[in-house]
Amino acid sequence: MTSGVDLGRPHTQTVGSDEDVVRVRQLVRTVAVAAKLSLVDQTKVVTAASELARNTLVYAGGGTVEVSIVDNGRRQGIRILFADSGPGIADLELALTDGYTTGGGLGLGLSGARRLVDEFDIRTAPGQGTRITITKWSR
Amino acid sequence: MERVPILKIGDILLVSIQVDMSDQTAVALQEDLAERIVATGSHGVIIDITALDIVDSFVGRMLSTIASISRVLDAETVVVGMRPAVAITLVELGLSLNGIRTALNVERGMELIGANRADDDHDEFDDGPDAESTASP
């Protein structure tokens, strides 16, 4: 590892600007390599993280991203938590529909990110912020 | 904010994206490219994404927008050098890159633009001068 990221514990990155989204991508890449994900799986999880970190910025004005290596006894993986105290999502089913957007984008961020990972957990309610946890396992 | 350099090679503008672009950098590239197309009268734009290790929905939309802007300004865009892992991820993400021509590398991209210009010139000749007015904004 060249980045000096301590992989023994979760690594946190605040998201408050465009450049922070770039930093999230770089952090996720570093940890995905350490978790021994294949190149395609690294690419998928970094792309998913980019979408979700941007959502945190665009819809909630910012938040935090926590990246860690997980182990289920058989495989290693990467787990990423995106947390914000923004307005939350009122209609989750609608928000997870391809092409639906309130932010002027393509409406692929949330739905696309879900397709790119193995586990996708979202907790949100109006006024309660949003917490999304994604996991990608090594094959 | 970093800016992506735009090189002019003959009749073509070449953009080789070498940095992990912030969204602002991507938007600036769109605007810079539109200005350079008009300033140079170029008819082709090649965007080399060999160095990009991901293309997310924002960059994907930027590529589509650049292709649309170029078309309106009488230039054709070809995206070259997409990595296999990026292509796989893009498809799974659900991004179709509408209206974007792709080629495996810069050389093939240049051939594609050259071939299309030759076709266009021929079409104009066939359709006569009136064909121009239908394409005007």
TrEMBL record, chain A:
Gene3D superfamilies, per the entry: Histidine kinase-like ATPase, C-terminal domain
Pfam families listed in its UniProt record: HATPase_c
Residue ranges constituting the Histidine kinase/HSP90-like ATPase domain according to the UniProt record: 40-139
CDD domains cross-referenced by the UniProt entry: HATPase_RsbT-like
InterPro entries: HATPase_C_sf, HATPase_dom
Protein name per Swiss-Prot or TrEMBL: Anti-sigma regulatory factor
Encoding gene (name): rsbT
Automatic annotation (TrEMBL), chain B:
Gene3D superfamilies for this protein: STAS domain (3.30.750.24)
Domain named STAS: residues: 2-113
One Pfam family linked to the record: STAS
Acidic residues biased stretches: 121-130
Matches recorded under SUPFAM superfamilies: SpoIIaa-like
PROSITE patterns according to UniProt: STAS (PS50801)
Matches recorded under InterPro entries: Bact_StressResp_Reg, STAS_dom, STAS_dom_sf
Annotated spans, Disordered: 117-137
Family annotation (PANTHER family): RSBT ANTAGONIST PROTEIN RSBS, RSBT ANTAGONIST PROTEIN RSBS-RELATED
Name listed for the protein in its UniProt record: Anti-sigma factor antagonist
